Amino acid sequence: MATVRLTYFDGRGLGEIVRFILAACGIEFTETLLQERQEYEKLLEDGKLEFYQVPLLEIDGLELVQTGAIVRYVARKGGLYGHSNAEQSKIDMFYEGTRDFFDSFHLMVFQDPKEVLAKAKAKGLPRYLPVFDQALKKNGTGFLVGDSMSLADVSLIELLLIVTEYFGEETLSDYPSLKAFKSMMVSQERIAAFLKGPQRKGANTDAYVATCRTVLKLDI
Ligand SMILES: N[C@@H](CCC(=O)N[C@@H](CS)C(=O)NCC(=O)O)C(=O)O
Asked: Is the pLDDT of residue 1 over 80?
Protein backbone atom coordinates (compact mmCIF):
# COMPACT_ATOMS: atom_id res chain seq x y z
CA MET A 1 0.00 0.00 0.00
CA ALA A 2 1.23 3.51 -0.79
CA THR A 3 2.40 5.52 2.19
CA VAL A 4 -0.30 7.00 4.37
CA ARG A 5 0.91 10.30 5.78
CA LEU A 6 -0.50 12.41 8.59
CA THR A 7 0.60 16.01 8.76
CA TYR A 8 0.06 17.71 12.10
CA PHE A 9 2.09 18.80 15.10
CA ASP A 10 4.21 16.83 17.55
CA GLY A 11 1.34 16.76 20.02
CA ARG A 12 -2.14 15.37 20.41
CA GLY A 13 -4.55 18.14 19.44
CA LEU A 14 -6.86 17.25 16.57
CA GLY A 15 -4.29 14.83 15.18
CA GLU A 16 -4.57 12.27 17.95
CA ILE A 17 -7.99 10.92 17.01
CA VAL A 18 -6.65 10.40 13.48
CA ARG A 19 -3.71 8.45 14.89
CA PHE A 20 -6.05 6.41 17.09
CA ILE A 21 -8.42 5.44 14.29
CA LEU A 22 -5.55 4.58 11.91
CA ALA A 23 -4.05 2.39 14.62
CA ALA A 24 -7.41 0.78 15.47
CA CYS A 25 -7.88 -0.06 11.78
CA GLY A 26 -4.38 -1.51 11.53
CA ILE A 27 -3.31 1.07 8.93
CA GLU A 28 0.38 1.95 9.14
CA PHE A 29 1.22 5.60 8.67
CA THR A 30 4.08 8.03 8.69
CA GLU A 31 3.96 11.54 10.05
CA THR A 32 5.13 15.01 9.14
CA LEU A 33 5.30 16.90 12.41
CA LEU A 34 5.27 20.61 11.65
CA GLN A 35 7.94 22.69 13.34
CA GLU A 36 8.41 25.74 11.12
CA ARG A 37 6.09 28.28 9.54
CA GLN A 38 7.71 27.62 6.11
CA GLU A 39 6.59 23.98 6.14
CA TYR A 40 2.99 25.08 6.63
CA GLU A 41 3.30 27.76 3.93
CA LYS A 42 4.63 25.13 1.52
CA LEU A 43 1.52 23.00 2.16
CA LEU A 44 -0.62 26.04 1.45
CA GLU A 45 1.32 26.86 -1.75
CA ASP A 46 0.99 23.25 -2.89
CA GLY A 47 -2.77 23.51 -2.44
CA LYS A 48 -2.86 20.60 -0.03
CA LEU A 49 -4.94 22.27 2.67
CA GLU A 50 -8.47 22.79 1.36
CA PHE A 51 -9.44 24.94 4.36
CA TYR A 52 -5.90 26.13 5.14
CA GLN A 53 -5.89 23.89 8.22
CA VAL A 54 -4.32 20.73 9.56
CA PRO A 55 -4.64 17.80 10.25
CA LEU A 56 -4.04 16.60 6.69
CA LEU A 57 -4.18 12.91 5.85
CA GLU A 58 -2.74 11.73 2.55
CA ILE A 59 -4.24 8.36 1.81
CA ASP A 60 -5.25 6.44 -1.32
CA GLY A 61 -4.24 9.40 -3.53
CA LEU A 62 -6.48 11.78 -1.54
CA GLU A 63 -5.53 14.86 0.45
CA LEU A 64 -8.08 14.82 3.24
CA VAL A 65 -8.64 17.63 5.71
CA GLN A 66 -11.39 18.21 8.32
CA THR A 67 -10.89 15.78 11.18
CA GLY A 68 -14.42 14.39 11.00
CA ALA A 69 -14.10 13.59 7.31
CA ILE A 70 -10.67 12.04 7.83
CA VAL A 71 -11.68 9.72 10.65
CA ARG A 72 -14.85 8.62 8.87
CA TYR A 73 -12.89 7.78 5.72
CA VAL A 74 -10.44 5.70 7.74
CA ALA A 75 -13.19 4.05 9.81
CA ARG A 76 -15.12 3.09 6.66
CA LYS A 77 -11.95 1.72 5.08
CA GLY A 78 -11.09 -0.27 8.22
CA GLY A 79 -14.57 -1.58 8.90
CA LEU A 80 -15.10 0.48 12.05
CA TYR A 81 -18.11 2.43 10.84
CA GLY A 82 -21.09 0.16 11.50
CA HIS A 83 -23.12 -2.06 9.24
CA SER A 84 -26.15 0.06 8.37
CA ASN A 85 -27.25 3.64 7.93
CA ALA A 86 -28.84 3.51 11.40
CA GLU A 87 -25.63 2.25 13.02
CA GLN A 88 -23.57 4.86 11.20
CA SER A 89 -25.85 7.61 12.46
CA LYS A 90 -25.53 6.34 16.02
CA ILE A 91 -21.75 6.18 15.63
CA ASP A 92 -21.85 9.77 14.36
CA MET A 93 -23.96 10.83 17.33
CA PHE A 94 -21.52 9.41 19.85
CA TYR A 95 -18.53 10.63 17.87
CA GLU A 96 -19.90 14.19 17.86
CA GLY A 97 -20.72 13.95 21.58
CA THR A 98 -17.20 12.87 22.45
CA ARG A 99 -15.78 15.66 20.30
CA ASP A 100 -17.96 18.28 22.02
CA PHE A 101 -16.38 17.36 25.35
CA PHE A 102 -12.93 16.80 23.82
CA ASP A 103 -13.00 20.32 22.35
CA SER A 104 -12.98 21.77 25.85
CA PHE A 105 -9.58 20.13 26.43
CA HIS A 106 -8.30 21.17 23.01
CA LEU A 107 -8.92 24.78 24.09
CA MET A 108 -5.94 24.49 26.43
CA VAL A 109 -3.72 25.41 23.49
CA PHE A 110 -5.49 28.75 23.19
CA GLN A 111 -6.66 29.57 26.71
CA ASP A 112 -5.45 29.38 30.32
CA PRO A 113 -5.13 25.59 30.92
CA LYS A 114 -6.11 25.91 34.60
CA GLU A 115 -9.39 27.61 33.74
CA VAL A 116 -10.09 25.16 30.94
CA LEU A 117 -9.54 22.17 33.24
CA ALA A 118 -11.61 23.66 36.06
CA LYS A 119 -14.52 24.16 33.66
CA ALA A 120 -14.16 20.68 32.17
CA LYS A 121 -14.22 19.21 35.67
CA ALA A 122 -17.17 21.22 36.95
CA LYS A 123 -19.34 21.14 33.84
CA GLY A 124 -18.05 18.57 31.35
CA LEU A 125 -17.63 15.52 33.58
CA PRO A 126 -21.13 15.55 35.12
CA ARG A 127 -22.69 16.35 31.79
CA TYR A 128 -21.01 13.79 29.52
CA LEU A 129 -19.82 10.82 31.62
CA PRO A 130 -23.31 9.67 32.67
CA VAL A 131 -24.48 9.79 29.05
CA PHE A 132 -21.70 7.52 27.81
CA ASP A 133 -22.00 5.23 30.84
CA GLN A 134 -25.73 4.78 30.28
CA ALA A 135 -25.30 4.29 26.54
CA LEU A 136 -22.80 1.48 27.14
CA LYS A 137 -25.07 -0.10 29.72
CA LYS A 138 -28.08 0.11 27.42
CA ASN A 139 -26.28 -1.35 24.42
CA GLY A 140 -24.99 -4.16 26.59
CA THR A 141 -22.24 -5.44 24.29
CA GLY A 142 -19.33 -3.52 25.81
CA PHE A 143 -19.31 -1.21 22.76
CA LEU A 144 -21.33 1.95 22.13
CA VAL A 145 -22.99 0.77 18.92
CA GLY A 146 -23.68 -2.78 17.75
CA ASP A 147 -21.53 -5.63 18.94
CA SER A 148 -18.09 -4.61 17.73
CA MET A 149 -15.66 -1.72 17.94
CA SER A 150 -16.44 1.40 15.93
CA LEU A 151 -15.22 4.96 15.51
CA ALA A 152 -17.51 5.90 18.42
CA ASP A 153 -15.56 3.64 20.80
CA VAL A 154 -12.21 4.85 19.52
CA SER A 155 -13.27 8.44 20.08
CA LEU A 156 -14.56 7.64 23.57
CA ILE A 157 -11.36 5.90 24.64
CA GLU A 158 -9.29 8.87 23.53
CA LEU A 159 -11.54 11.08 25.67
CA LEU A 160 -11.49 8.78 28.73
CA LEU A 161 -7.71 8.60 28.62
CA ILE A 162 -7.55 12.41 28.71
CA VAL A 163 -10.13 12.60 31.49
CA THR A 164 -8.35 10.07 33.71
CA GLU A 165 -4.95 11.56 32.94
CA TYR A 166 -6.06 15.00 34.16
CA PHE A 167 -8.56 14.08 36.88
CA GLY A 168 -7.49 10.59 38.01
CA GLU A 169 -8.93 7.10 37.63
CA GLU A 170 -11.35 7.80 40.48
CA THR A 171 -13.28 10.02 38.07
CA LEU A 172 -14.77 6.81 36.67
CA SER A 173 -15.64 5.30 40.09
CA ASP A 174 -19.34 6.04 39.76
CA TYR A 175 -19.48 4.80 36.18
CA PRO A 176 -18.99 1.03 36.11
CA SER A 177 -19.72 0.65 32.40
CA LEU A 178 -17.17 3.32 31.51
CA LYS A 179 -14.60 1.72 33.78
CA ALA A 180 -15.09 -1.68 32.18
CA PHE A 181 -15.05 -0.09 28.72
CA LYS A 182 -11.74 1.64 29.41
CA SER A 183 -10.02 -1.58 30.54
CA MET A 184 -11.45 -3.49 27.59
CA MET A 185 -10.41 -0.88 25.02
CA VAL A 186 -6.86 -0.35 26.25
CA SER A 187 -6.26 -4.07 26.09
CA GLN A 188 -7.42 -4.43 22.48
CA GLU A 189 -4.27 -5.51 20.64
CA ARG A 190 -4.00 -2.62 18.18
CA ILE A 191 -4.95 0.05 20.71
CA ALA A 192 -2.54 -1.37 23.29
CA ALA A 193 0.29 -1.39 20.73
CA PHE A 194 -0.47 2.19 19.69
CA LEU A 195 -0.55 3.41 23.30
CA LYS A 196 2.88 1.90 23.93
CA GLY A 197 4.32 2.95 20.59
CA PRO A 198 6.20 6.04 19.35
CA GLN A 199 3.24 7.55 17.48
CA ARG A 200 1.19 8.11 20.65
CA LYS A 201 1.82 11.72 21.67
CA GLY A 202 2.20 13.04 25.20
CA ALA A 203 0.08 15.64 26.99
CA ASN A 204 0.49 19.24 25.86
CA THR A 205 3.79 20.84 26.70
CA ASP A 206 4.78 24.51 26.51
CA ALA A 207 6.99 23.65 23.55
CA TYR A 208 4.08 22.09 21.65
CA VAL A 209 1.86 25.11 22.29
CA ALA A 210 4.66 27.48 21.24
CA THR A 211 5.23 25.52 18.01
CA CYS A 212 1.51 25.58 17.14
CA ARG A 213 1.45 29.32 17.70
CA THR A 214 4.54 29.95 15.58
CA VAL A 215 3.54 27.69 12.71
CA LEU A 216 -0.03 28.98 12.59
CA LYS A 217 0.90 32.58 13.41
CA LEU A 218 -1.57 32.68 16.28
CA ASP A 219 -1.51 35.96 18.11
CA ILE A 220 -4.45 35.35 20.43
N1 LIG B 1 -12.66 21.89 11.51
C2 LIG B 1 -11.26 21.61 11.36
C3 LIG B 1 -10.48 22.53 12.27
C4 LIG B 1 -8.98 22.34 12.05
C5 LIG B 1 -8.16 23.37 12.78
O6 LIG B 1 -8.68 24.32 13.40
N7 LIG B 1 -6.85 23.18 12.71
C8 LIG B 1 -5.94 24.14 13.28
C9 LIG B 1 -4.78 23.42 13.95
S10 LIG B 1 -5.33 22.52 15.37
C11 LIG B 1 -5.41 24.97 12.13
O12 LIG B 1 -4.88 24.43 11.19
N13 LIG B 1 -5.56 26.29 12.22
C14 LIG B 1 -5.08 27.19 11.22
C15 LIG B 1 -6.14 28.13 10.74
O16 LIG B 1 -7.33 27.93 11.06
O17 LIG B 1 -5.77 29.05 10.04
C18 LIG B 1 -10.98 20.16 11.67
O19 LIG B 1 -11.76 19.55 12.42
O20 LIG B 1 -10.00 19.61 11.16
From this structure: no
